[in-house]
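Lecture 7 notes: from sequence to structure.
We start with the chain below.
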Amino acid sequence: MSEGLADANNHSTPALEALYGRWSVSGAGLLLSGNVQVDRWHLERPGNIVIDDESGLRQLRALAKAGTAGGAHFWLQLSHTGRQVVSEINPSPLAPSSVEIELPPGINLIFAPPREMTEADIEKVIQQFAFAARQTRTAGFTGVHLHAAHGYLLSQFLSPRSNRRTDRWGGSLENRARLLFEVIAAVREAVGKDFPLGIKLNASDFQKGGFTNAECIELVGMLNHTSLDLLELSGGSLEQPKPVGLAVKDEGQDALPERTIKRQAYFIEFAGAVRAAAQMPVMVTGNFRSVAGMVAALDNGELDVVGIGRPMIANPLTPAGLLSGEIEETITPETSLAVFYILPWFYMQIVRLGDGLDPDLSLGGPEAAAKFQETEQRIMTDLLERRSRDVASDRFAEGLVTQ
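Predicted structure tokens for the same chain:
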């Protein structure tokens, strides 16, 4: 659900306002934004919103107003990519340890070797999350969501595969989770006791030697002692793309035999045990496509909140249709797309929604991929040119260059 619609300053835009304005009347009770980064040198995509200074507040206010216009809650999802940022954006990204990403075949991206974070780096990240959360509340959003899944920085600290530290930030689960708990505490202090705070957490990394479902359940028991208001379960990462239903390598101890994968939602097999351990509401996101499946998960006590993503792109009124009984099964255009066309197809539909257009369900996978590559490269070029001008301006101001 990454939008990629920010401008070259990584500020919100009228396109984002149009997108979330449309979703505000979708029938959903809560909207979660795509990745909003707390550090402009750690972007998941060049078109991410960034909140790491005072600029952009006016644009954020307009976005918050648009996304709440229909009465829905609208929470910003704050993230730090850690090592999961392409080298064009950051040739020396931060990570818990100097462990490179193992990319699946077919992903033509270049990631630079990460630099192990110092204590000062870690403390800075904690304060970056707190600052961005404070700005989120000031701008008028109704909550904040911390991205601790999908292989981004908080998730990297949780995983023994990417966190090989021997200090107080690595080793035991308690140590690997220390950054997450420090961020939660700092964010809570920044936004106050009455502001909703959620996190997105992997039910499992689905990788041999990674963060497991058993560790997730143990961690949830620890999170019960914090002030979290919502726990969202997802899973996987760029190395193991379970968010699109794929496993490209050994899933480790959480692999499910094919005969047991009988439910439509990717992570529902793990949700019941997590919910039993959790003292906060649990939301599950990933491949819910039918009213029957959603109701069964609720009736079985496996979750409290149903999360949907791609159906709201293909049909922005999906939640209202599900609630009214008009829709029994959501649109599933991804089933007719080759796997590496799925994300480009949905990204280009987001662009259409941001332009005030309806989704184009006739768009083909290869055409979507070509349009996405062209669009993303243009945004990347604009970002890098802007950065180059900013660097030159800063150097001139410091008297390091002359005109």
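Points to note: The chain has 13 helices and ten strands. Residues 365-397 form the longest helix (33 residues).
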